[in-house]
Specification:
With 191 residues, the protein is an all-alpha fold. The protein has two domains: 47 residues, no CATH class; 131 residues, Orthogonal Bundle (MetI-like fold). The radius of gyration is 25 Å and the shape is extended.
Length: 191
């Protein structure tokens, strides 16, 4: 039981409302001013969806959105595959030499600041380019690799927590009845 005193102050509500206002008022103003028909940001000229039409007609912007969605889909697919493999190794293979280091490497992107991880990957790519000539430039491939690095940790943590809940005797019974390991994995894991 918690023995800490409960503070009932009317200022708690005021502070909470001020905090939410501080966080969400700029976003609300951005949404409202996105419907401004004026070219000047500070002058209100009326409601319009003109700028959304301009945005959709901008070929460079639409190309960037398409590239972002492509990278996101490819990174999510690769992270789902790699994260699932990592989760199976962490949960089903038990303790093995280097298992603590492997678990740390998988979960490191969750606890490291994104800026540090991004700079580390940038330095890695630059060092690899100088040492072996790959990657020749920092483009779509390196962005994809960085996103896979970030996302794999999330997939591995979520799937490993789900795998820990499953009863391994069900898997053993399925294999005793003649199911292949791949069949057991695909039928038991995703139902």
């Amino acid at each position: 039981m918690n023995n800490l005193p409960v503070v009932r102050s009317p200022w708690r509500i005021v502070i909470l409302l001020l905090g939410f206002t501080f966080l969400y008022a700029p976003m609300l103003m951005l949404v409202i001013y996105s419907f401004n028909s004026s070219k000047l940001v500070t002058v209100w000229a009326g409601w319009s969806t003109r700028w959304y039409g301009e945005l959709l007609r901008d070929d460079a912007m639409m190309s960037a959105v398409g590239l972002s969605l492509t990278i996101a889909a490819c990174a999510a697919t690769a992270a789902a595959i790699l994260g699932t493999i990592a989760a199976v190794v962490l949960v089903r293979f038990g303790r093995f030499r280097g298992s603590n280091g492997f678990a740390f490497m998988i979960t490191a992107p969750l606890v490291m600041p994104d800026v540090i991880t991004g700079l580390s990957l940038l330095l890695l790519f630059v060092a690899l380019a100088h040492a072996i000539g790959w990657p020749a430039d920092r483009g779509m491939l390196t962005i994809w690799l960085a996103h896979v690095t970030f996302c794999t940790a999330y997939v591995a943590v979520v799937i490993s927590s789900r795998l820990r809940e499953l009863d391994s005797s069900i898997e053993e019974a399925a294999m005793d009845l003649g199911a292949t390991p791949l069949k057991v994995f695909s039928s038991l894991r995703y139902r």
